[in-house]
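Chapter review: from sequence to fold.
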Amino acid sequence: MLNFFAIENRLERLEELGDTLVRLNQVVDWQIFDPVLESIFKSEPKGQGGRPPYNRVMMFKIMILQQLYNIADDQTEYQINDRLSFQRFLGMDIGDKVPDAKTIWLYREQLKESQRIEELFDLYTWTLEKAGYITRRGSIVDATFVERPRQPEGKTGGNTEEKKTNRERQTDRDAKGAKKGGKSYYGFKNHVKVDADSKLIVRCTVTAANRHDGKEAANILDEKDREAYMDACYRGREIEKAMQKAAPNAELHIVRKHDGWNEASEEQQAANPRIERVRNRVEHVFGYMVKSMGGKGVRCVGLARARVAVTLKNLAYNMRRASYLMG
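The token string follows.
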């Protein structure tokens, strides 16, 4: 049996071994999210004697935990019950009731319905920029596929209406297929603008996988950008015109190669290696998500839910990255 002192000793030992969640609590001011969360997570009073609603900041931290470790709702409930480090991160005592999987899902649904996940992301980004960690000396624009399991619809003959309905409910009408480098992808796409100095994600959008990278770029650039680096898929008269309108103060640095119609000039070809050196820093961001955060994929159905999951993943990455930058 664990007594109070045994628990304290175990937690101290976990911290000595390098509990990254302790560091996260030290560098993230979770209370900055509370005013927004208060208007999102609305709990109806359950009458006298009813169980009070869960702490909204704690529920938000649970969603961040899920993205840090890529765990689904059922597994999240189990892991919080099982792991002292998770309980400490969430501010729970060992005897506290842990939210079940359905409750976690319901809170995330409220976040989806509010359409305010970008507001939470931008709020934390603002604190990083105010503290000087986001320098704006250079921005890297790129996108990565966010795959979800492909669920074939199969034949409908002989199925009952109930089976048809269940299958249709699990079929994602928003997820799309795309090809790149001869490989097929299915799901969504995470478009990001990354600060070149800090490798922090400054802005992001989520679309279907078949959305052209260049056509989404104008939605993540802004007037604060001074230098923007991107690969060859962002070239094109209309695309560059839209980007320049979104970021009128920015100089666009785009890798220029022979596109089948136009040959890159010698000056453009000479600039390519320098652009690539800066632009390649974005691969560290995506690589970290794959190697240290369980991957970039999603399990949810629909673009609205994917937007929440992917933006939370980007936010969780920024928190991890900031904890490193802050020493």
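Two observations follow directly from the output. Residues 8 and 199 are 36 Å apart (CA to CA). The longest helix spans residues 303-325.
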